[in-house]
Design brief:
The protein has 223 residues and is α/β, with parallel strands linked by helices. The protein is 17% helix and 22% strand. The protein has a single domain (17-199), classed as Rossmann fold, CATH 3.40.50. The chain has four helices and ten strands; from the N terminus they run ααβββββαβαββββ. β2 and β3 form a beta hairpin. The radius of gyration is 20 Å and the shape is globular.
Length: 223
Amino acid sequence: MTTMPSMSPTSQSGQTIHDWFLSDAGRAVLASEEDAIAQALSDRPGMPWLWCGPGPRDTADVAGRGLYLSPDGEQWRGRIACGLPLPLPSDAFGAVVLQHVARPSGPCGQGLLEEAARLLVSGGRLWLFLLNPLAPYRWRWRGTGITASEPLAWRRRLRAAGLVPDAVSQGLGPGWSLRVSPLPQQGAGLRAAYLLRAEKRVLPLTPMRQRRALHLGQGVSAA
């Protein structure tokens, strides 16, 4: 019987990719994203959120109602332990945050994006945090097994999952130094990471009939 590949692939040193986010370099990226994460979790007030991040953390001080999960081998762990598909109701979450857990392929690949689309309400948003392959900072994760992709490739994946991505990403994090840089910039640029948002838009099953235009007679004012 074949086994599923791990959600947390290992590097040649035997460490998982997510171990890199426990390093000083990885922590600087995560700290730079805290303001954007807070914005994401408050994006749809009154609605629950789902936040998937690279490692266990305490969310007791996080506003709103939601669930935090992190990958652990083939499973997701937090207040629940589960695999994909997640045992969560469809069309129930105002925001889904995937913070450095999405991959171009494998168990955290396209299926994870499609699962996020299933969970979102119409008008809900997916907030996708990714490492920037063009950043000088990439030398700090060299040898860890991390594979980074540019925004264009992720927009194609988001559309394939049924989501509508923003036309422009936001660059986040440091350029090269380990300094926390929370202010976003337009476009990924040379920042260590970037944020790409996508919205779930559901068309009505029955097309809406267009209203007939009202033609005014001559001499009738439209004011």
